[in-house]
């Protein structure tokens, strides 16, 4: 099981403006590589990033790290049966950056 340090994205509006803070777990200044994560690690990642309620959808669908790296925007928006707002944030601020980081680290 992974431990994450929560860092708030500086580009997000503050809660007083009606937006929800998005947190990004960082390991050694970089996003973690989920390629070897189990389902529990994926669930814990999303709980640590402030999506506790939505994290259960990843468990229900048995999404492990390899599956997470293969997910498309449409998979997250429609396949997990979660509300549109959180689904968009999960994809844009977490799934997509994790996929990009994984591709960059494997390209070298």
UniProtKB/TrEMBL annotation:
Residues 1-33 are annotated as: Disordered. GO terms for cellular component: nucleus. Gene3D superfamilies: Transcription Factor, Ets-1. Pfam families: SAM_1. One of its GO terms (molecular function) is histone binding. GO terms for biological process: negative regulation of DNA-templated transcription. This is SAM domain-containing protein. It comes from Salarias fasciatus.
